[in-house]
Design brief:
- This protein has about 170 residues and is of the alpha/beta class.
- Helix content is about 30%, strand content about 20%.
- The protein has 5 helices and 7 strands; from the N terminus they run αββαβαβαβαββ.
- Strand 3, helix 3 and strand 4 form a beta-alpha-beta unit.
- Helix 4 runs parallel beside helix 5.
- The two termini are about 40 Å apart.
- About 5% of the residues have low confidence.
Length: about 170
Amino acid sequence: MDEMIVNKVAESGIITLNLEDFLPDPAQLAVFDLKPFLFREMILREKDFRAALPLHDWEQYRDKQVTVTCSADAIIPQWAYMLVATALSPVAASLAFGTLETLTEKKILERIGAIDPLDYADKRVVIKGCGDKIMPEAAFIAITAKLQPVVKSLMYGEPCSTVPVYKKK
């Protein structure tokens, strides 16, 4: 029993990337919903809308990543989104259109886009699977497209049990 237990996974040189590390801080995200500004949650009346916008507390969006949406099933004229953008632009860190999920996905993709792929040149990389949070499929596509040109191999899962995705010839 003098044999030493060797952790072959630790010695393999495999780099594990957890896409959850690319998630934005939820406290820095905000949603502006046009629904409360609608008459009977159906109609946007220009005069009422223009009157209500200056009364809204825009400071709650200070330095946040804001997405603008309408959760009601209503037809919203495009100029209404432009008016909201003019009010948010001085306070928000960034603006987008869509749901909180689409904003989160956009921010993940931006962070993946900022990776220097040369940091992973000729390395064996595992994209961690089965995390605590559900990650958008777009993140897996983006990380694959970003790393495939430079990595030695790309895998999915855990270092002890991976699914091969790509191997350089």
